[in-house]
Design brief:
Elements (H helix, E strand, L loop, with lengths): L5 H18 L3 H4 L4 H17 L3 H17 L25 H10 L2 H13 L3 H6 L2 H8 L6 E5 L17 E5 L1 H18 L28 H14 L10 H14 L9 H7 L8 H7 L1 H9 L12 H14 L5 H11 L5 H13 L1 H4 L4
Antiparallel strand pairs: 1-2
Helix pairs in contact: 1-4, 3-4, 5-6, 5-10, 6-9, 6-11, 15-17, 16-17
């Protein structure tokens, strides 16, 4: 247990006693359980307090149990435990595939790329924040689809928990993510005049970081979660308060489980590998050596939006919101003016014309 005041230690022992009663195991048996079962029991116990409105108790319980696990040989920084109850409210909401695309539609260039890259790769929050432009530069600047993303322990030099349990694996950005990423990178190059290889793919926007240093400073994980919540709310998702970056990872898993467009199911080993889970025996080396085969299987999955997620009115509002996010002002006035001059145009076409005129054709025609 952690060192501290006597009252703190007594409080921690009480929480541990309540936990073992809740879990139905002795402390000795608890620490012998598989890691995932340990994670599940601890998270559920603490979340139960949070759901009942006792967030301070949830946070204290997480601290106590993490201290207990650390004292018993666990590397707690590598456990999949989310204990910051200041921002997270349970239960977690996992968006549908169409809701993810609705979020992307109302987000700006950077956040559209972040949302689609998280969703179509299943990357953890920490791994996405640790990627640099140089790692994917050649693929981004070509027409390749999908983009291959290699998660290695090198990422830990940037974000300490980026390669969980030291499991190295490959995953991919699908067609929609590639398109969004290339548009964002094209815009960023125009604004900055270029991107250095060691700059983050999605750097910090914090005003506390000097502008000249932001490109090499990772985003804060809670800033990412807060922004995703705002975008989910803007997209009309009622359960936006319960969404976080990890939720998109679960939507990714749902696509893996849904099977191939042309029939059949993806093998469980392939799914576990793409989730970044440790595989037994010699299976991981096999997958690492057959990335192209795995990419072909990945592309057979159904990543496309369902088409029934948004009405025409919702889609139009999303397009307008996207235009505003690019810095285009008075969009409604400009649309009316374009339609007066071109009565044969639809509103969607009018917005497209306005965006092309104000931001340049190069941005809108970035190859996918």
């Amino acid at each position: 247990m952690r060192r501290g005041s006597r009252s703190t230690l007594l409080s921690y022992f009480k929480l541990l006693a309540w936990f073992v009663e809740y879990a139905g195991v002795s402390p000795d048996d608890f620490v012998r359980l598989p890691k995932r079962e340990v994670e599940r029991l601890v998270q559920d116990f603490c979340d139960d307090y949070c759901v009942r409105g006792r967030r301070a108790m949830a946070a204290n319980a997480m601290k106590a149990l993490r201290s207990f696990l650390k004292a018993n040989g666990f590397r707690v920084d590598e456990l999949d435990l989310d204990g910051d109850y200041r921002w997270m409210r349970r239960p977690e909401y996992v968006p549908t595939k169409d809701e993810v695309y609705r979020m992307a539609a109302v987000a700006g260039l950077k956040w559209r790329a972040i949302i689609l890259c998280l969703f179509q790769s299943g990357l953890r929050n920490s791994a996405l924040r640790a990627l640099t432009y140089g790692m994917l530069k050649d693929q981004i600047e070509s027409d390749v689809v999908p983009i291959k993303v290699h998660v290695t322990e090198e990422l830990r030099k940037i974000v300490p928990d980026a390669c969980k349990e030291g499991v190295e694996y490959w995953t991919f950005f699908g067609r929609e993510a590639c398109e969004a990423l290339r548009q964002y990178i094209a815009y960023r190059k125009e604004v900055q005049g270029g991107i250095e290889d060691d700059e983050l793919l999605f750097p910090s926007d914090s005003r506390r970081v000097p502008r000249e240093l932001r490109g090499k400073v990772p985003m804060d994980k809670w800033s990412l979660t807060r922004q995703l919540k705002r975008i989910a709310r803007k997209a009309g998702i009622k359960q936006w308060r319960y969404l976080r970056a990890h939720s998109l990872r679960k939507t990714f898993r749902a696509v893996l489980d849904a099977g191939y467009v042309d029939g059949g199911q993806m093998a469980e080993d392939d799914k576990e590998y793409l989730m970044g889970h440790k595989l037994p025996g010699s299976k991981a080396p096999y997958h690492n050596a057959n990335v192209d085969v795995l990419a072909e299987r990945y592309m057979r999955l159904n990543w496309a939006p369902g088409g029934a997620g948004m009405s025409r009115e919702q889609l139009l509002e999303a397009i307008k919101a996207f235009a505003k996010s690019l810095g285009i002002r008075d969009i409604e006035i400009k649309i009316r003016k374009v339609l007066e001059e071109n009565p044969e145009m639809s509103e969607e076409e009018a917005v497209g014309l306005i965006v092309r005129e104000e931001l340049g054709i190069k941005l809108m025609e970035a190859k996918a």
